[in-house]
Amino acid sequence: MASANNTTQNENASITPKKSSKSSKDHTYDLDWIRNTNAKPFLSDSSHVLKKPITDHGCQKRLSKYNGVVNRMTSDQVNDELQKRQLSTNGEIEIRRLRLKHYYKAQLTFGCENPFQMIEQHFEYIAVVDFEATCNHNQGNNYPHEIIEFPIVLINVQQRMIVDKFQSYCRPTINPILSNFCTELTGIEQHQVDSAPTFPEVLRNAETWLNERHLLSSNKRKCGFATDGPWDFAKFLRMQCGFSSISYPRWAKKWINVRKEFSSFYAVQRCGISKMLQSLGLVFDGRNHSGLDDSINIARITIELMKDGCVLLLNDGIRAADPKFIDLNSVSHELQNLNEDETKHNDNLVILDR
């Protein structure tokens, strides 16, 4: 994703202490839309059992004792315990420790020897999106970012694998000539956007592709959309719909913020795609800031989360009551705060106490 003023800083930037965020209960979402689509299971009264803390006092004591034992294990001891449970031994030591702790919590919750097999994900499919947009080296805060690449990578949740892809370039109309900075960053050449349809047609094509697979039908296959952070939908898609004078798509009002979920599940500070992969013992596959390659790598992270017992729910979205949602060209103070997650100066993964 080609971001506003921080595109070249994302992966090698510093990880600052986690900031407290307001509860989603304070937000006003489009509840009618949620009730009438495949997002219905994610209303506040339908949280998955593993998203809740263990309340039984005896189980709490056992879990606390086990977590203390895991914290004192050496790397080899952690790997031995993971192998006994047929779990992955990839990743940094703290990620592997958390993998063991999540397994034991699931074991206490479900009362069986293979608890991860008992986890029921709410989505049948997850569609990962990572836009690329026009940008310039010396752009200001009000630079008109136009989407120039629209990829979708589809995950079959049960199979835990990528099963399909959509990708299209988009022809920008406000700044039709790509800057050298944009081409170098994204790898997108001028001739690729010159021969591409404009965004409204690409959006129609993307929705046709989704509908052909019954992914937007509320009474068929359940599909959740996922991005790396809030910017793709809350900023770039909002902005582009304003430029194109078209309605913001309902399916993009609420999504899985993979970066946010990764941070919460593994108790680490939020970080970019490459750092998340590195902490899982993986390497980036493809070219950074290629929309399709970024989407594939976000999908790989998403699959690893599910393998480690993470239940993926819609955890981010656009607030329907936000007056700035009407002015799609504005860059809200909220988005500027969210962009602070990208301005980092250290590549170390900070582990939080858990």
Automatic annotation (TrEMBL):
Record carries keyword Hydrolase: yes
Positions of the Exonuclease domain: 125-311
Composition skew (Polar residues), residue ranges: 1-17
MF term (GO), any: 3'-5'-RNA exonuclease activity
Top-level taxonomic group: Eukaryota
Listed Gene3D superfamilies: Ribonuclease H-like superfamily/Ribonuclease H (3.30.420.10), SAP domain (1.10.720.30)
Cellular component GO terms held in the UniProt record: cytoplasm; nucleolus
Keywords on record: Exonuclease, Hydrolase, Nuclease
InterPro entries named among the record's database cross-references: 3-5_Exoribonuclease, ERI-1_3'hExo-like, Ribonucl_H, RNaseH-like_sf, RNaseH_sf, SAP_dom_sf
Region entry Disordered, spans: 1-26
UniProt key word Iron: no
Entry protein name: Exonuclease domain-containing protein
